[in-house]
């Protein structure tokens, strides 16, 4: 006899008993109530797990297609590469990594097709993955042991006759100008002697360090220089910028323009000594609207690129912060943090690749920006001005050379 049938039978007998055995009825109903609560918790956990698995599948599909295109792996090694990638991504979320890795790898199916036309080769990678997620003991009480979580993703990459070919793109920067950006980095801007000995040797110095804001301006300048260097004729790159504290502080007008002149001018004009809290929600909404890529090609960016005979154009968003979402306070706000995550999800669904940069950020800020990045390779965590500049240069170079995109 099944546990559920037995439970129903016991309850029915008690209801027929007019003697009023309330103690026994309570003893039966309390575990049922707790079991229902456990199911609710498990449903919430399952939704989160599915989203995490989808991100892992997307990242693995992109990484596999890119590796095939640049010759890092052969078609014969694509399946193992993708399975390892999905398992590695999911190990960040699952507690028992050894068991989880085996279970997830077993559920990953990879299909690769290769088509050659003239000197060009295209790789299509399709990944489907399922994972049996155990449920809690409370859910087990009412007969549920586990639930299957699934995700799928498809990507396309290409190798053209010119390996140095550049892509048309639209890129918007969402930059933090909160009060913490006035803090110093470890990079020395100037060093002045304030006391010497009788021999004229300096004994004490006054040192001025580069602020985070100054470092950001240098890094953005390096990104713009790299984009300009790859777009000599000025017909491939469109850029824009928006900055935020706990409010949106401003944006380029119009938000997007050819080249980097307007965006560069905006970033250089951001305050050297900023103030305010941190909330990227408004800036993310503006950035998403600026470069989203609807499938019908009705957006302004698609039309602008088409006028330059750019029949395809990639969309990028650079989200940078040195803090965590506090709003107008100095205390982390979980609600604001979740809203930013939701906007990052929306931007990805809108066909935007997100590069995220956690510059000397606290742990909660790092976790948010890791979540927002489109892939592990799109997340940067510089702790020095020098590394920030290198990372922004890398973002520009990666964006201009990318020939791999999600197609599902």
Short recap of the structure:
This protein has 408 residues and is of the alpha/beta class. 44% of the residues lie in helices and 25% in strands. The model is unreliable at 95-99 and 160-165 (pLDDT under 50).
Tell me the domain tally: 2
The fold-level CATH name of the largest domain is Rossmann fold
* Number of DSSP helical runs: 12
Q: Quick one: biggest sheet?
A: 6 strands, mixed
Beta-strand content estimate: 25-35%
Measured between the Cα atoms of the first and last residue, the distance is 46 Å
- Helix-strand makeup class: alpha/beta
Task: Please tally the β strands and state the result.
Answer: 13
- Find the CATH superfamily of the largest domain: von Willebrand factor, type A domain
Silhouette = globular
CATH class descriptor of the largest domain: Alpha Beta
Strand order of the largest sheet: 8-7-4-10-11-12
Give the ordered list of helices and strands.
HHHHEEHEEEEHEEEHHHEHEHEHE
Helicity level: 40-55%
- At CATH level 2, the architecture of the largest domain is 3-Layer(aba) Sandwich
What is the radius of gyration?
Answer: 27 Å
Mean pLDDT over the full residue set: 84
Q: pLDDT below 50 for ≥5 consecutive residues: which ranges? A: 95-99, 160-165
Key structural traits:
globular; six-stranded mixed sheet; 2 domains; 408 residues; 44% helix; Rossmann fold; four-stranded antiparallel sheet; alpha/beta; single chain
Can you characterise this structure?
The chain is an alpha/beta fold and 408 residues long. The protein has two domains: 3-159, no CATH class; 169-406, Rossmann fold (3-Layer(aba) Sandwich), CATH 3.40.50.410. It has helices at residues 3-16, 22-69, 78-90, 97-106, 137-141, 212-230, 261-268, 281-291, 300-307, 334-349, 363-372, 385-401; strands at 108-117, 120-134, 146-159, 169-176, 184-196, 202-211, 237-244, 248-251, 257-258, 314-321, 353-358, 379-380, 404-406. A six-stranded mixed sheet has the order 8-7-4-10-11-12, sandwiched between helices. Helix 2 (22-69) packs across helix 3 and helix 8 (281-291) runs parallel beside helix 10 (334-349). The radius of gyration is 27 Å and the shape is globular. Residues 95-99 and 160-165 have low confidence and may be disordered.
